[in-house]
Amino acid sequence: MTPLRILGKASSINVRKVLWTCREVGLDYRREDWGSGFTPTDKPEFLALNPNGLVPVIEDEAGVLWESNTICRYLAAKAGRLDLLPAQPRERARVEQWMDWQATELNNSWRYAFLALARRNPAYADPSQIAASTRSWNTTMKVLERQLEGSRAYVLGDCFTLADIGIGLSVHRWFATPLEERPLLPAVAAYYDRLSERPAYLELGRNGIA
Questions:
Q1: Rounded to an integer, what distance in angstroms lies between the CA atom of residue 37 and that of residue 148?
Q2: Which residue of 59, 81, 122, 136 has the smallest Cβ count within 10 Å?
Q3: Last residue within a domain, chosen from 24, 56, 78
Q4: Are residues 137 and 180 in the same domain?
Q5: Both 64 and 96 in a single domain?
Q6: Considering the entire predicted model, what is its pTM?
Q7: What residues contact 172, with CB distance under 8 A and at least 6 apart?
Q8: DSSP 119-153
């Protein structure tokens, strides 16, 4: 069997989704550094794998896949991990709903503020846009707070699922970014600490890298 090949730098939040999923399912892999600061993703050999020029990309005996959530679903299903991604359509859809929420609503809310305050990207220096992004990010995190208040230990209840991987990484990003305003969200804070009991989260999430 061909070893799993992961293309993408370890600091990328989307690459870390895949790495954390590999840790949870016990899958060995070989990772290669691609992305800003490493081998550029606009090289023809990378674009042949992912025409979008984005990480992560994986390759195994079945071929190539890109898009982090798709990769995580594939790896969990391949490993038969129904605890991470249920087979029953309704239960699976609930996991996927929150995975997609993280990739769309949550990611879109934090992008400007994160790039300005954590990455110090000079292209993101407009104070009004930083403030607007911060407000949007905090509002979106309050959605998670309400969900965690009702769902107990994890996003969907007592059991850890794939939804917690992307969301858990984003929660760390929220706490690690020096926001001027950050509301007190006790359920999110407790969730952050609960995830930190998992060795893979300490390695790939709460590891000093936002």
A1: 36
A2: 122
A3: 78
A4: yes
A5: no
A6: 0.95
A7: 192, 205, 206, 210
A8: S--TT---HHHHHHHHHHHHHHHHHHHHHHHHHTT
